[in-house]
Amino acid sequence: MSLPKNKFTLFAALWFAASIYALLFHHSSGGAMPFPHFDKLVHFLLFFAQIWLCTRAYRAAGKNIPIVGLLSAALIWAVASELAQALFTLDREGTWGDALADICGAAAALYLAKQVERVEHIRKSS
Which UniProt keywords apply (predicted)? Predict the structure, then answer.
């Protein structure tokens, strides 16, 4: 699975780099969260945006969205990022809850992308 070469691939690469910084190198402020489980929402949105940009890259290139490939990549990144946070950071912890939020965000993006793709197909057919 290789991403097409277009602006959405560039945006996805930049988003991935930003997520590496946010998850592994940016120090936690240690302040109070705006609401309980706010961090889970952030993880969900981080992965939603990453996978959404990847699906946009495929759609812009006129290619089918590789659901299994993107979900597998998200799963690997979710586990790897949580392990890295647990092992290599002093002010963060890796949790299965965060990894689950990551996967849910990726799955939601894939679901939405397939729905958009379906609607576009119906519009072109009529």
Answer: Membrane, Transmembrane, Transmembrane helix
Query: What are the structure tokens assigned to 114, written together?
Result: 């397939």
Within-domain flag for 78: yes
The most confident of 18-27, 100-109, 117-126, by mean pLDDT:
100-109
SS (H, E, C) 53-119: HHHHHHHHCCCCCCHHHHHHHHHHHHHHHHHHHHHHCCCCCCCHHHHHHHHHHHHHHHHHHHHHHHH
Does any domain span residue 31?
no
Whole-angstrom Cα distance, residue 23 to residue 93? 10
Global confidence as pTM: 0.90
Token pair listed for 25: 């190198």
